[in-house]
Each structure stands twice: as C-alpha cells, then as structure tokens.
C-alpha cells in the first residue's frame, strides 16, 4: 500500500458519522462565536488552532465578556486538558511506533481530538504500520475540512436563524461521540459508558456540574473492577492491511 492509498482510506473513513457529527457540532460553535461578537476570521482560527469544542466554547465565552488574554489562555488550556490521555495513548498508534521528528509528532498531537483518537485506536489495522501516519493524516485532514465548513455555515446561519435554533446543534457532539464509542470491543469499555451515563443524571442534583467528571471516573472504575475480560489474544490483523 502506498502512502497516498493510506491517506485516501483515512479520508473515506471520515466521510460518514465522524465527519458529519463533528461538522454539525462546529455549526453550533460558529453560531455561539458570532453571538459572542467574534469576527469570522477569529472564529475560523479558533477552530483550527484550538481544535477541541470545549476549549473553543470557553474561548468564545471568555472573549465575549472581554476577559484578558491570560484568562482566555488558561480557560482554553484547562478545557482541553482532557485531550492529554488521548494524546499519550493515541499518538503511538498514529505513528505506527515509528520515530518521527518532533515537529511531525507535535502536529499529530495537535489534531488528536476525540474523533481522531477513536478512529486510530479502532481502525489502525486497515493500513500497514509504516503507513499509519498517512492514514491518520487523511482522516484528520477531512475532519478539519468538515469542521471549518461547519464553523463557517454556523457563523453565517447565526445571522438569519434564531440563536437557539443553531446553538442547539452543538449538542450533536455527545450523540455522535456515543455512536463512535459504541464501537468499543471490550466489555469493560462498554460497561464504563453505560455506568457513566446512568450515574450522571443521578449525581447532577447533588453535585451539579461536577456530575460529569465524577460519573465518568466512578463509572469507569466500577466497570474495570467488576467486569472481567478474557485473556488477550494476539490479533493477526494488527499491523496488516485489509485486502
């Protein structure tokens, strides 16, 4: 398989639930950014440079209320801190274990958001190990195109549609992430998703906004403690491409 073929496979893999879901989410962000008073070019730069919806929304909110740059930077950093575990676990899969330059690894880490992480840890086998950087590049390239287009559409639509009608699209993110994580193969992973979703509504009246992280931690911990998994079996497809 050539590098171009691996890149093409990544592009095609994005043309479905990942691309559509993220594009719709960015439509909501575009509308929120416009309502916050951001200019179009700033909104597009925020999508490209931050590349994480919580951080982008924090950026729009902080800029909208006139916060100083240090406060904006800190807010975006804390909002996107959740990406760190995905970068640590997903980057080796995206690089195929190859020793790439620092700049290449930095660029790959920048675009290792939830969508890219789920794709590369579940679908890395569709390309040989040495072609996985190209596979990942094709996927995130198409994802970025869809994200930028969604941001532009949302920003423009925010001028002609009721704000609430456009902003509600941002809630497509939890739905499409649920659809993507449903591909998890381990019972523990599936159990963590189910338990976390069940606990969050129950905890919200008690601890408010802390319900989301607490439910995630408790749900994941309980699932991994209570649900057993069979001994790992070597997957002969790992490191091999599909015919």
Describe the structure.
The protein has helices at residues 3-14, 17-35, 40-50, 53-64, 69-79, 83-95, 102-110, 114-123, 132-157, 163-167, 172-181, 187-207, 211-226. With 243 residues, the protein is mostly helical. It is built from 13 helices and no strands. It has 2 domains: 3-170, no CATH class; 184-226, no CATH class. The longest helix is centred in the middle third of the chain and has 26 residues, at 132-157. It starts with a helix and ends in a 17-residue tail after the last helix.
DSSP strand content: under 5%
Globular, elongated, flat, extended or rod-shaped: what is the shape?
A: globular
Oligomer kind: single chain
Q: Kindly name the structural category.
A: mainly alpha
Separate helix tally = 13
Write the layout of secondary structure elements.
Blueprint: H1 3-14, H2 17-35, H3 40-50, H4 53-64, H5 69-79, H6 83-95, H7 102-110, H8 114-123, H9 132-157, H10 163-167, H11 172-181, H12 187-207, H13 211-226
Helix pairs in contact: 1-9, 2-3, 2-4, 2-9, 2-11, 3-4, 3-9, 4-5, 6-8, 8-9, 12-13
Record keyword descriptors for this entry.
mainly alpha
Q: Care to give the gist of this entry?
A:
It is built from 13 helices and no strands. With 243 residues, it is mainly alpha-helical.
